Amino acid sequence: MVGPILVTGGAGQLGRLVVRRLLAGGAAEVRVGSRRERPTGDHSAYGWARADLRSGVGVPEAVAGAEVIVHCATTAIGRRSEEAVTGTLVEAAKRAGRPHLVYISIVGIDRVPFGYYQGKLASERVIEASGLPYTILRATQFHDLLRTVFAITAKAPVMAVPDLPFQPIDTGEVGARLAELALGEPAGRVPDIGGPQVLEARDLAASYLLSTGLRRPVLPIRLPGKVFRAYRAGGHTTPDHTFGTISFEDYLAAHPDPRRGSYRARG
Q1: CA distance 65 to 5
Q2: Are 188 and 261 spatial neighbours (Cβ–Cβ below 8 Å)?
Q3: Is the peptide bond before 4 cis (omega within 30 degrees of 0)?
Q4: If you write DSSP's letter for every residue of 18-36 in order, what string do you get?
């Protein structure tokens, strides 16, 4: 039985689902790593470690004794910040022993020259060079992210969307795969995973409008630059590695409030 397991970002959108899956899968001990205090009244079976990967405060205590670390914490600030928080975690893990480090990354970070992607790629390299046993999984964009974008753009009279394909995947299915990897042996870079369909943004937007009952003309926008050329070429998709069964339409049908323009963990 594997344990203890630390999940960084364990209170976030993906991390919470990983924690639940690990507990359901029989993990001996699961510890949530978060910058926040444990919510009042939360008496769930997992432990809680307050740790800030940006400053390093609390990180050594959070990783102490962990046999596995699932690194779901992330920052949208930029390459250096993303690489730095991963480096902080890796150094603390190395001092604590040789835990198995499981990292969630993004499909296409080596093909799309986007700043945040470059940070994820740099983080992968930090992990690969760490000497720690590791597993790296790349996934495509989550359904939640596209829904949030559409909820915001649908507030305008005309719904402008990028003229790009996407292969959205269910967060819960990614969480299940991460939990499976965390309970297994270190495997290095494992095959990428993407959602069950590759669809144009305009078609995904049409599904969003149908599910919410909104009526808006959809205007695909072709943006210039090398980043969007790489996106248009499908650099962020992996059509040969579809995973899971939950489509964007399935996700929208099950969502309690698809019009909400907030990308946060929910109940």
Answers
A1: 9
A2: no
A3: yes
A4: HHHHHHHTT-S-EEEEESS
Q: Where are the alpha helices (DSSP H) in 112-261?
A: 115-128, 143-153, 171-182, 201-212, 226-232, 248-254
Angle between helices 79-96 and 115-128 (to 10 degrees): 20
Residue 112 phi/psi, 5-degree rounding, is -110, 115
pLDDT 10s digits, 138-175: 999 999 999 999 999 999 999 999 999 999 999 999 99
d(CA 112, CA 228): 8
> Got the DSSP string for 41-63?
T---SSEEEE--TTT-TTHHHHH
Question: What was the pLDDT predicted at 260?
Answer: 86
Q: Rounded to whole angstroms, how far apart are CA atoms 234 and 236?
A: 5
Structure tokens at 106: 């993004």
Euclidean distance between CA atoms 90 and 225, whole angstroms: 34
Closest CA to 241 of 199, 200, 194: 194
Longest dimension (CA), the chain: 56
Overall pTM surpassing 0.90 (yes/no): yes
Q: How many residues are listed for the chain in this entry?
A: 267
Neighbouring C-beta atoms of residue 8, cutoff 10 Å: 29
Backbone torsions φ then ψ of 266, nearest 5 degrees: -130, 150
| Mean of per-residue pLDDT scores for the chain | 94
**Is the Cα dihedral 68, 71, 73, 79 positive or negative?**
positive
- For residues 3 and 122, the model is more confident at 122
pLDDT tens across 64-92, in order? Answer: 999 999 999 988 665 678 899 999 999 99
pLDDT at 266 over 50: no
Note the pLDDT of residue 176: 97
CA angle 49, 52, 55 (to 5 degrees): 145
